[in-house]
Write a structure and sequence with these properties.
- This protein is mainly alpha-helical.
- It has a single domain, classed as Up-down Bundle (de novo design (two linked rop proteins)).
- Helix content is 70%, strand content 4%.
- It has a three-stranded antiparallel beta sheet.
- Helix 5 packs antiparallel against helix 7.
- The protein is elongated, with a radius of gyration of 37 Å.
- GO terms for molecular function: gap junction channel activity.
- Pfam families: Connexin (PF00029).
């Protein structure tokens, strides 16, 4: 399977991501995609051919393999990587939509017209919601596949010996998995990297929400501050005008005394 398109996708969305998003992309590409392509596919190889049972009963081998491995680990991880990386394409498409709107607006009203977006790649408005929803979707995908892997295979262990009692096996048959220890190590590695990616996505959501709340609070504070200044300056002007209208107090001429009047 060719994973080159995923590399291009991850490289394109990297410039629109936060610091946590870039770390997430690095882990996905280096520790999940590269390990999957370089090592995991070769470790599993032809799983059904390497699955051995100590019986020659026709159909018993196939039934036992299908019972213990209903879905291949490699194919399950391939679906997981596809579903977890494709939502990043929505962010790139949303930015491309903004750039197209900006281009059409300039063609219609000229280059000196008012811009629709100060920065088409800045996470504001609808792009902010698109980015957050993609993070939620990534968390859901990784958590779902980690649970499916545990539920389908009843854990992340690969026993060396498997007892099979499925029909048409004549009795309890011993079956053996090729390279069980190596497969166990790679399975635990992929599960741990998935959990790390879930943790990083949660941290990134908290970071985006906290940053947005802080900006809203700062904008509200700046809006309230000029209003307070205007009110205080208005009251100061009213007080000064009132003081100007008050007449100056002049000393009154005292009334003549009674003795002076008679004389």
């Amino acid at each position: 399977m060719n994973w080159a398109f995923l590399q291009g996708l991850l490289s394109g969305v990297n410039k629109y991501s936060t610091a946590f998003g870039r770390v997430w992309l690095s882990i996905v590409f280096l520790f999940r995609v590269m390990v999957f392509v370089v090592a995991a596919e070769k470790v599993w190889g032809d799983e059904q051919k390497d699955f051995k049972c100590n019986t020659a009963q026709p159909g018993c081998h196939n039934v036992c393999y299908d019972h213990f491995f209903p879905v291949s680990h490699v194919r399950l991880w391939a679906l997981q990587l596809i579903f977890v990386t494709c939502p990043s394409l929505l962010v790139v498409m949303h930015v491309a939509y903004r750039e197209d709107r900006e281009r059409k607006n300039r063609l219609k009203y000229g280059d000196d017209c008012r811009r629709l977006y100060q920065n088409t790649g800045k996470k504001r408005g609808g792009l902010w919601w698109t980015y957050v929803l993609t993070l939620v979707f990534k968390i859901g995908v990784d958590a779902t596949f980690v649970y499916l892997l545990y539920h389908i295979y009843e854990g992340y262990d690969f026993p060396s010996l498997i007892k099979c009692q499925q029909k048409p096996c004549p009795n309890t048959v011993d079956c053996f998995i090729a390279r069980p220890t190596e497969k166990r190590i790679f399975t635990i590695f992929m599960v741990v990297t998935s959990l790390v990616c879930i943790f990083l996505s949660i941290i990134e959501i908290l970071y985006l929400v906290g940053k947005r709340c802080r900006e809203c609070f700062a904008a509200g504070h700046h809006t309230h501050h000029p209003m307070t200044n205007n009110i205080s300056s208005g009251s100061h002007l009213m007080e000064s005008s009132t003081l100007k209208r008050v007449p100056k107090c002049t000393p009154e001429t005292p009334a003549p005394s009674y003795s002076s009047a008679i004389s």
